[in-house]
Amino acid sequence: MTSSGAVSTPRDTTTAGDAHREAVLSGRTSLGIELGSTRIKACLVGPDPTQVLAVGSHEWENEFSGRTWTYSLESVWSGLQAAYADLAADVERRYGVPLTTVGAMGVSAMMHGYLAFDGDDELLVPFRTWRNTTTGPAAAELSELLGVNIPLRWSVAHLHQAVLDGEEHVPRIRFLTTLAGYVHWRLTGRRVLGVGDASGMFPIDPATGTYDAGMLAKLDTLLAGRLPVAHAVDLLPEVLSAGAQAGELTAEGAALLDPSGTLQVGVPLCPPEGDAGTGMVATNAVAPRTGNVSAGTSIFAMVVLEQPLEGMHHEIDLVTTPAGDPVAMVHCNNGASELGAWAGLFGRFAEAAGTPLSGDAVFATLLSEALDGEADAGGLLAYNYLAGEPISGLGEGRPLVLRTPDSRLTLANFVRAQVYGVFGTLSMGMQVLAGQGVAIDRMLAHGGMFRTAGVAQRFLAGALDAPVAVGETASEGGAWGIAVLAAYLSAADGTDLSGYLDEQVFAGASFDTAQPDPQDVAGYAAFLERYRAGLAAVGAAVEAL
């Protein structure tokens, strides 16, 4: 897919364009690539990382094969090559020069999941993504053993479930990693992982910045004789914090990314990170008392903690920022995909009626209509559960729209219910954090549904009963966030990540902030009360269908 920005971009012949062209030619740039759930995106920034010089993208979709959500490694590389080629073409169009090198680069991807390799570096079983919910027994046993919540999607839960199930590949495992770690490994030859992404493989000790040694000892005792190594840590990538050198682009890696042979070797790479960490960077939410919400195929909130949480909560993951600071994460498997499906249906209706609309226009029309809906969505309920949802206790998904006979079925109420449904499970988890006394000074949001100004942002503020800001720089999302982490490589000796973002990236940034409307807060609270009660109907649908 050619990026929308690249299709109509004329060559930049301005003074700024000359400076950007020189930056491209001299390699004073940083490249970020992120493998998201539905799109692989590449983002090139200049010496000032707020200046996006070029972008590229490629659409892809997961497969549900053998009752497993997966992406093939072939699609990983064909998608990466397509996104990079799209970026290089955008550079050529904008500045009239080829993209031969960059100053630094980084890779980000969907967190968690399970990629297991043997001693010959061959994949043992298809990639098991974060979306799979088949690891319940393992996650429960590990949570009790370690005294912290181990979510179903974490890599260690997948590993232990494979052991419990007696899967034949287990004795042959020699290396486990995430999607970002896998791509980075193939590009550089180094088996490393950024601490934020590593915290979705196994719990991190904030004091050491690496896997918790005490918990690893307990895991070794549990799995003694059942793994091909004496210590489980020997299967895991080395953990690095933001700013650490994580290898250089090899000849093999350059050929994988750019088969044309134009890209030169030797580019330094930052530690590979998960999409949660790059979302935090893209919204400048890496300091204590800050948080962000990312809405896409999944939806999750990240809140940087001032102090540890009391007790264990199945709704909350304990992960870290890319710098290793502790974070409470509320991760929901289901985000805006069901809303997108309904938008597609209404878009087709408009086309059939002889008034075709672009996808963005359909979303803008529907979301604007939702502003006229009743504060509680008129008694309508919408569940976006395409996949299982651990926070709700559901092993499988069944999207539903429910209403009572006395509800008010209007387009405005219907769309508002769909938007509320995107935030439903998330707000259940956020209420747990509020009950723990976790304070948030600012909550920033990013994702496609926030592009229509003043709608989803306002409803999220009502759902969280907290101000929600959307920044201009978050538009490029995690690909821009990992490009910023790559740029940070040259500044890490002089400042920490939070200071770098405050002083060199976001110093002049503007944010649009929505304050919670009291009517929205009360209306959403009524919606959520019905939403909780209606979960029994979703469970019944899973059993019946």
From TrEMBL:
Residues 1-16 have a biased composition (Polar residues). It comes from Georgenia satyanarayanai. One of its GO terms (molecular function) is kinase activity. One of its GO terms (biological process) is D-xylose metabolic process. SUPFAM superfamilies: Actin-like ATPase domain (SSF53067). The lineage of its organism: Bacteria, Bacillati, Actinomycetota, Actinomycetes, Micrococcales. Belongs to the FGGY kinase family. Keywords: Carbohydrate metabolism, Kinase, Transferase, Xylose metabolism. Residues 1-21 are annotated as: Disordered. This is Sugar (Pentulose or hexulose) kinase. Pfam families: FGGY_C, FGGY_N. Residues 292-488 form the Carbohydrate kinase FGGY C-terminal domain. It comes from the Bacteria. Residues 31-257 form the Carbohydrate kinase FGGY N-terminal domain.
